[in-house]
Amino acid sequence: MQIRPKAGLVIKTHLAERKEDYPEGMKVFINLCHSADIPPPPTMDYEEVARAMLESDNVSFKVPLSLSAPRTDKDKSGKLCLVFDAACNTTPFEHCTKDASFHAFMVTLCCEWIESKHELTLSRDVSFPKLKSKGEISLHTIRKQSKSIITEIPKTIAPPKSVNPDVSKLAQTQSTDFVNAVLPHHEVFAEPPAGKPEFLVARVSLPKLATIKGNLHLDVEARKLIVTPAGKTAASLYKPLEIELNHNVVLEEVGAQFDLSTRVLTVTLVCEK
C-alpha cells in the first residue's frame, strides 16, 4: 500500500564529493518525516540508547527507514539541490524532537542510509531550516495496513532472549484446548525487499483477541518465531503458531507491538549481518 508520511523536520547538508552530474557542494535537503504505519524499532528504550550514544560510538540500535528516490528542487538562490524523504515510525520521530542525543543519532542514520543506498558522500556539517519539509513529501510504498493505532506490548510478555524448549510439548499437553481453535493468519516480509534484508517484520492477525495481556507467549529462535496462546480463552481460539524465518535474527533485538484497532501483532526482528 502507499502512504504519504507526515512532515517533520528538515536536515540541510551538501555533497562532500562530486557524483556524476551532482557537483561537490550541491545542497542536499533531507525531509525526516514519519508515519505510524512504518515498522517501529526493535526496542523502545530510548533513554538507554541515549546513554549508550554518550558513552560509545558503537551503538547497536536500528530504526527502520523508508527512503525515497532523490529528486531535484531549487534552493532560495534558485540553484538546483537534491531532496530526499526519510520516513520512520512516529514514536522514534517524536522522541528525537525531545532528546538532543537521539536527534543527532537520527540525523547520522539518515545521512548514512542515503550514502549507502545512492553512493553519495554527504557532509556532516548540517543545519536545520525552520521548515517541516522541503517541498511535498513523496508517496512511500509499504506492506502494512493504514490507519493503525499501535500500542506497545508490555515488557512482561516481551520475547525472551532464550528459546523455550518445551513449546512443542506445551502444545501437545494442551491439545484438548485447541480442538476448535484455528491457526492465526500471518505474513512475513523483509526490509528492504530486495537484496540482503536488515529487518524481518512478521504480522500475525488475532481478530478474536481484544487484548494480548496474559493471552500470548512469544518465543524467538535464530530462525523461528513461536506464538503460543496462554490461558483457556486464547487457547480455545488459536492454535500455537511456529513461523520459519529465512534469515538468522538477533535474539537480543526483538520488538513486538499489538495494534488494538486491527488486532494485529507486529514483530520486528533484526537480521544478523
Helices and strands, with pairings:
Layout: E1 2-3, E2 6-14, E3 27-35, H1 46-55, E4 66-67, E5 71-74, E6 80-89, H2 90-96, H3 100-118, E7 140-141, E8 150-152, H4 167-173, E9 186-191, E10 199-205, E11 216-221, E12 224-229, H5 232-237, E13 241-244, E14 249-259, E15 264-271
Parallel strand pairs: 3-6
Antiparallel strand pairs: 1-7, 2-3, 4-6, 5-6, 8-14, 9-10, 10-15, 11-12, 12-13, 14-15
Short description:
By secondary structure, the protein is α+β, with helices and mostly antiparallel strands.
Helix count equals 5
Mean pLDDT over all positions = 79
Report the strand count: 15
Give the radius of gyration.
21 Å
Stretches where pLDDT is under 50 for at least 5 consecutive residues are 144-178
Basic shape: elongated
- Which structural class do the helices and strands define? alpha+beta
Task: Provide the succession of SSEs.
Answer: EEEHEEEHHEEHEEEEHEEE
Proportion of helical residues: 10-25%
- Measured by DSSP, the beta-strand proportion falls in 25-35%
Largest sheet: 5 strands, mixed
Q: Whole-Å distance between the termini?
A: 28 Å
Structure description:
Helices cover 18% and strands 33% of the residues. It is built from five helices and 15 strands. The chain has helices spanning 46-55, 90-96, 100-118, 167-173, 232-237; strands at residues 2-3, 6-14, 27-35, 66-67, 71-74, 80-89, 140-141, 150-152, 186-191, 199-205, 216-221, 224-229, 241-244, 249-259, 264-271. Strands 2, 3, 4, 5 and 6 form a five-stranded mixed sheet that branches. A five-stranded antiparallel sheet has the order 8-14-15-10-9, with no helix packed on it. It starts with a strand and ends with a strand. Mean pLDDT is 79; it is low at 144-178.
